[in-house]
Amino acid sequence: MSISAETAGRILEVPVMEGARVSKGQILARIDAESILRNIEELENSLDLATTIFEKQQRLWNQKNRYRNPVFGSKKTERKDWRKTSLP
Fold first, then answer.
1. What is the DSSP letter of 86?
2. φ/ψ (deg, to 5) at 13
């Protein structure tokens, strides 16, 4: 029988003796999770930064298009009134 870990890491403890009988679900080794937790934190920070950049770009896009679009650009123009609006 072969076993493998779901993730890589430094082994902290092996609570089972070699050759001992084990049952399904029993912990065979404990892995240091510190590097995994740091990776998760870095990914969360990257996601926060990407979200912030996206939101800023979206606001800029909306501002830019508001001035370009004569039909929907003005808050005074209702969508139902777009057919009444003449294009330049």
1. P
2. -155, 145
Q: How far apart are the first and last CA of the chain?
A: 77
Which CA distances in Å does 83 have to 61, 71, 77, 88? 24, 9, 10, 13
d(CA 33, CA 27): 15
DSSP 64-80: HHHHH-TTTSSTTS-GG
The predicted-structure confidence for 1-32, as pLDDT tens digits, reads as follows 777 778 888 899 999 998 899 998 899 999 99
Task: Copy the structure tokens of residue 55.
Answer: 């939101």
In the Cβ-directed half-sphere of 87, how many Cα atoms lie within 13 Å?
3
The whole model's pTM is what? 0.50
* 3-state DSSP assignment of residue 31: strand
